[in-house]
Design a protein that fits this description.
Elements: H1 6-17, E1 23-28, E2 32-33, H2 35-45, E3 54-59, H3 76-93, E4 97-99, H4 114-125, E5 130-132, H5 141-150, E6 161-162, H6 173-192, E7 201-206
Parallel strand pairs: 1-3, 4-5
Antiparallel strand pairs: 2-6, 3-7
Length: 211
């Protein structure tokens, strides 16, 4: 799952350097603006990743085949949709490993907390999908920037900007546990209905064509 930001960029690079074939997927919705920034990052990466690396831009699915009215104002509902979209695409591509650019220095964000990561990995395993977090060891924004600069990449966060995002949203422990429990259960219900969830591919490209 590729936003074009610092962390998903490093995740793609690390996966490639580890020998994994990579397909990059960017989700777009009415509240995410600035896809041209993502394309700028793709042009940068075209010098580092194999020329046949595929990029897909998809529309965020709205119908997740489950009740999502319980969500607080966090990024959890969108990440629910990202998980569902990525697993649908993984099925089409014959992939069984799903990578997110979750980073350790953002683990106070509900969807990136150790609890959320553990529960997401657990629910995905039930459907034979392995969760990969290639940059979860990055402990600071400065460390992410330094690694990008070592590759000669822009240290800017070349991603779409969210018009809904509330910066550094945190939840009290009890509320976080309740939300994560409901999140896991809702994702599970969506996974049970994957065959009826459509994911629209808006655009696609091969990185070699961007050089």
């Amino acid at each position: 799952m590729f936003s074009g930001g610092r962390d998903s960029t490093l995740a793609a690079l690390r996966l490639h350097l580890a020998g994994a074939p990579v397909t990059m997927v960017t989700v777009t919705s009415s509240h995410l603006v600035g896809i041209e920034s993502v394309r700028q990052r793709l042009t940068e990466l075209s010098h580092y990743l194999p020329a046949d690396t595929r990029w897909l831009q998809v529309r965020q699915p709205k119908e997740l085949r489950t009740d999502t009215s319980f969500y607080e104002q966090t990024c959890l509902p969108c990440h629910h949709a990202y998980v569902v979209a990525s697993v649908v695409l993984a099925g089409l591509l014959g992939a069984r490993r799903l990578a997110f650019g979750y980073a350790g220095y953002q683990m106070n964000w509900p969807e990136q907390t150790p609890l959320a990561v553990a529960r997401l990995a657990h629910v995905l395993r039930r459907y034979d999908v392995v969760l990969e977090l290639p940059v979860y060891d990055i402990a600071s924004r400065a460390a992410a920037i330094a690694e990008l600069e070592r590759f000669g990449l822009s240290s800017d966060s070349l991603e779409q900007k969210c018009l809904r995002q509330v910066t550094n949203v945190t939840l009290p422990e009890a509320q976080l546990r309740a939300q994560i429990g409901l999140w896991e259960a809702a994702i599970d219900r969506s996974m049970q209905a994957l065959n009826s969830i459509e994911v629209e591919i808006i655009a696609e490209a091969i990185l070699g064509s961007l050089v």
